[in-house]
Design brief:
This protein is α+β, with helices and mostly antiparallel strands and 89 residues long. The protein contains four helices and two strands.
């Protein structure tokens, strides 16, 4: 928790002068991002296909909530995600 938040803060500071691309499974780090991309992989007959999509603000909240609480997004997880993103601005 606390260390991930510090990492998020440091990445945000660096992003003021540099382009940062960060892959994370930590909601505390993800909440600091200016732009949020979701990378997903699907198995296919010939291998795997990777998809990258830019998330809207609403989708970003849902993705941070999913990272916090798992596949089923609860109202509690969504509120926590909204608060994390709000505090990171």
């Amino acid at each position: 928790g606390a260390v991930a938040e510090v990492v998020g803060q440091k990445l945000k500071q660096l992003s003021e002068h540099y382009q940062i691309i960060c892959i994370t499974h930590l909601a505390q780090v993800a909440s600091f991002g200016h732009q949020h991309l979701r990378v997903s992989k699907a198995q296919q007959d010939e291998g795997a296909q990777t998809t990258v999509e830019q998330l809207s603000n609403h989708e970003r909240v849902d993705e941070v909530a999913r990272i916090l609480g798992g596949a089923t997004i609860t109202d509690k997880a969504r509120k926590a995600a909204e608060e994390m993103i709000k505090q990171s601005v």
